[in-house]
Design goal:
The chain is mainly β and about 220 residues long. The chain has 1 helix and 12 strands; from the N terminus they run αββββββββββββ.
Length: about 220
């Protein structure tokens, strides 16, 4: 268990990152105004991403994400490691591709994991399918053995406008260790501004675990 001083230090880091997010958003908005581009909507999502393992141990991962025009950001807690906080920013590229989104991102991580991240989020969306793959590499400054690669992929079929279901997989590997590959099933329930996501991995094995996500999605109107 981390010491009290370490927890207080991480909370201080979190407050600084939240302030940095606000400054980044203001900066991007100012750049948009300078370029005479009219951004009327800024989607923002607040929520948690929780993991429950076979021993009923729960890990809570709060997250804030949003976009402004072609710019995107994510603020995540306890994601790379327990008692860590990260800020990731990126920009959508190849926006002329129909139904396809490609967002390269970079970020910094503080707390128990100190380092940086490089990430590529790719998705395909149409009236029937939602496909996504996320490749991330996190490099630790102080303990290189904590550096890791993570791939998270899913393909969901839109049964109704409110319900989606499909297969999913997770591949992860730390430095000098073998890659772990888990497959499972995911389902999403959409109710107005709320989205509830469930991921069940290794359901055919003895080491089954769950990812449970609850998000509130809103759109800020900017004039």
């Amino acid at each position: 268990m981390p010491g009290k001083a370490g927890l207080l230090q991480t909370k201080s880091y979190m407050k600084k990152i939240q302030l940095l997010i606000l400054l980044v958003f203001i900066g991007l908005f100012g750049q948009a105004q300078d370029n005479a581009k009219a951004y009327t909507e800024a989607p923002v999502s607040f929520g948690t991403f929780n993991t429950v393992n076979q021993k009923n141990e729960v890990s809570v991962n709060p997250a804030i994400s949003g976009s402004l025009g072609s710019f995107y950001f994510e603020n995540r807690y306890n994601y790379e490691a327990a008692n860590s906080a990260s800020l990731n920013v990126g920009r959508s590229i190849f926006k002329n591709l129909r139904h396809i989104s490609i967002v390269p991102m970079v970020g910094v991580v503080v707390g128990s994991f100190k380092g940086f991240t490089a990430e590529l989020q790719t998705s395909f969306e149409n009236n029937r399918w939602s496909l996504s793959t996320d490749n991330q590499f996190s490099a630790a400054f102080t303990q290189s053995s904590k550096s890791m690669y993570l791939n998270w992929t899913y393909a969901r079929y839109k049964v109704t406008p409110f319900f989606q279901i499909g297969p999913t997989s997770v591949a992860s590997q730390q430095v000098n260790q073998r890659m772990a590959f888990d497959k499972g099933i995911t389902a999403v329930l959409l109710i107005k501004q709320w989205s509830m996501r469930t991921y069940v991995y290794n359901y055919k094995k003895g080491e089954m675990y769950f990812w449970l996500s609850l998000r509130y999605n809103l759109k800020l109107l900017l004039k």
